[in-house]
Structure to design on (553 residues):
């Protein structure tokens, strides 16, 4: 009989050192511009510290961390929605805690105008996802931005593969609908401006 | 056709699509690529921020509560709840309730000589001795219901509190306690100023009922209804408005207002229904007949019954229901032989039969 060896859970400090940066990247992507990444990362690791003694290693630690991050981000966004509703002045993705876009270490552009445009387009991307259900939004971001596989997303979100597919398809459809709507609005505004210019 | 769930792996990510296309997917893919461009917005935290978070986490480290704390809390809450219910049912709290009840009794204000006289039915000006007044209960026959308004009107005005004189004012009951003496020093409560809403309605009612100035009353009532449409007194104001319209002989408007008014809840519902029937009778005898019939079923006063009987007879007559009209007019003559329309009713009955 082969003896079962249960590995001891890693120490919290080791997990923090190894994964804090990655978790912060996931949190940023899931939150979008304007999200309080520091707050979320801190909350994630508070949960990690609390649950780490019970981590049994059945799943990869990154999957486990991803799962916690997704839940914490969803909770944070829910709280922010509640706060917006209660105070009537909640931050939109573009009106959160302002963080200046960092200078790109490699790749990207150093042109401030181009960077500003890039930020605007990133804002637009997340704006199309606003109002989407948290599950749809998370699935969409994990698939499109993080590049995770369907199975991994199913594992992280605790759903079946079929559900992931349904959520992704629906999120994509809504994303395209909103993009079209915005384009139509812009087109109408342009036509209106041209008509105004054409007047004597 | 619905795609199989496993097809999720075969879905091409938008960001992997070739650039430059014009389809919806291509434009969406461009947006995804823009969101992925480094520097579009801060992605992740730098080392300084992560160090700060690590220090914050260390400072926040605290001992987790023992595992039994939650079950213990739940058990304690359940015990308290059950004990409260049981205690209430079995009377454990009776002494506490009794004490609370005793405390909640308001202090009796000292009674003036005038009140004593009214209560005891005495007309003598000489005050009774304090001991007598307190110990001898008034006989039931000598204790008529006091005229509160008259008694109140004899009191000094509230704006000028008068300090009661020892020879004129006697307190009822045993020797005055310290609390009663304190109560003596308090100024009498000021009458509350009526609210703007009440004042507006009072003004309108005074114009209508007191001065019989229907146009001014109508304007005042319209103003009131516009300002306080959902007030408790709004239905009363609407009824008064109908009265004003009738005074001004604006029957059509009065009928429209009556049609819009829910009559069931109003204290004058029978009378209002009769008025509605009379107004309807000029154009719509079918509905007027229904109103008169309902009034006759619910009527309590002879005046309303007389009008309803005559109205229904007139309506039935105009609708060609001579039998019904004759029956109503016969009832009318029997019930009101000296009524306003009795003579006419008799003639009609003679001519018809």
């Amino acid at each position: 009989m082969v003896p079962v060896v249960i590995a001891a859970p890693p120490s919290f400090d080791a997990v923090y050192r190894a994964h804090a940066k990655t978790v912060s990247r996931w949190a940023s992507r899931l939150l979008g511009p304007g999200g309080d990444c520091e707050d979320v990362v801190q909350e994630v690791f508070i949960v990690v510290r609390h649950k780490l003694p019970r981590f049994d290693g059945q799943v990869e630690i990154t999957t486990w961390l991803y799962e916690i991050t997704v839940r914490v981000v969803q909770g944070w966004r829910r709280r922010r929605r509640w706060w917006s509703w209660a105070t009537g002045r909640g931050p939109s993705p573009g009106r959160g805690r302002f963080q200046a876009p960092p200078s790109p270490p490699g790749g990207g552009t150093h042109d401030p105008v181009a960077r500003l445009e890039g930020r605007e387009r990133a804002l637009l991307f997340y704006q199309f996802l606003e109002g989407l259900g948290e599950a749809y939004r998370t699935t969409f971001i994990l698939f499109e931005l993080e590049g995770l596989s369907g199975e991994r997303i199913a594992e992280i979100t605790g759903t079946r593969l079929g559900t992931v597919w349904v959520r992704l398809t629906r999120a994509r459809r809504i994303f395209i609908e909103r993009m079209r709507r915005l384009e139509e609005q812009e087109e109408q505004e342009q036509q209106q401006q041209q008509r105004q210019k054409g007047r004597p | 056709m619905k795609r199989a769930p496993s097809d999720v792996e075969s879905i091409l990510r938008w960001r992997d699509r070739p650039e430059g296309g014009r389809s919806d997917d291509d434009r969406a893919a461009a947006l995804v690529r823009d969101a992925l461009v480094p520097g579009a917005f801060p992605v992740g935290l730098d080392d300084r921020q992560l160090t700060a978070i690590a220090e914050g986490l260390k400072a926040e480290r605290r001992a987790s509560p023992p595992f039994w704390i939650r079950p213990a809390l739940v058990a304690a809450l359940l015990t308290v709840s059950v004990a409260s219910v049981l205690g209430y049912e079995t009377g454990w709290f009776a002494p506490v309730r009794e004490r609370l009840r005793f405390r909640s009794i308001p202090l009796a204000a000292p009674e003036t000589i005038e009140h004593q006289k009214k209560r005891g039915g005495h007309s003598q000006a000489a005050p009774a001795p304090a001991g007598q007044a307190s110990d001898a209960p008034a006989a039931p026959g000598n204790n008529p219901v006091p005229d509160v308004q008259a008694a109140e009107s004899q009191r000094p005005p509230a704006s000028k509190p008068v300090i009661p004189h020892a020879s004129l004012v006697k307190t009822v009951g045993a020797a005055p306690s310290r609390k009663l003496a304190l109560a003596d020093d308090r100024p009498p409560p000021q009458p509350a100023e009526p609210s703007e809403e009440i004042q507006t309605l009072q003004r309108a009612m005074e114009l209508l009922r007191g001065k019989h100035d229907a146009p001014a009353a109508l304007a005042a009532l319209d103003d009131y209804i516009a300002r306080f449409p959902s007030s408790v007194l709004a239905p009363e104001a609407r009824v008064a408005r109908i009265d004003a319209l009738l005074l001004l002989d604006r029957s059509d408007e009065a009928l429209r207002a009556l049609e819009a008014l829910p009559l069931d809840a109003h204290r004058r519902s029978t009378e209002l229904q009769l008025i509605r029937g009379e107004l309807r009778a000029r154009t719509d005898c079918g509905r007027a007949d229904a109103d008169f019939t309902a009034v006759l079923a619910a009527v309590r006063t002879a005046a309303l019954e007389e009008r309803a009987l005559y109205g229904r007879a007139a309506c039935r007559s105009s609708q060609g229901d001579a039998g019904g009209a004759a029956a109503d007019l016969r009832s009318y003559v029997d019930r009101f032989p000296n009524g306003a329309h009795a003579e006419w009713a008799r003639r009609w009955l003679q001519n018809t039969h």
